[in-house]
Give the backbone structure.
Amino acid sequence: MSEYFQRPLSPFFKIFEEKLSAAAILDLAPQISTPEAHQFWVRGGYPEPVLSDDPSFWSVWMENYFLTYLNRDIRKLFPRLDLTRFRRFISVLPKLSGQFTNKAQIASAVEVSEPVIGDYIDIAAGTFLWRKLPSLESRADKQIAKAPKGHLRDSGLLHYLNDEPIQ
């Protein structure tokens, strides 16, 4: 965002260089306004659609990216994969972004078994479409009870797959 809006990095990042007091952190002023951050979040992080001011270009680019991902990359990496069911799984991912991933519910929605959903999640994570976030419980028995979360790595793709128009 800082590069796109041609602003210096937020002073918040000094926290990685030196220890800042709580008061110093509270006094930090953002370099980017909330509307600018929202605009960037909706468009995503891929350079071509971000740099274009044309919303129709954004839609076409995202559609082409998604179709290339499915029809070329996934087909080439996993030739025996049922693309129809995997595409159905991908269409569920935006609704799961940031939520607990209950494999049984996803399997029911996609009409496959739970182990297949586990494989699909691994494929999406391995191809950098999805980021798996494990449970943050320290005790092993609680980790089993707590479901992991995940999210789509690009917020622009998230909005595209949710059929959300951009401004």
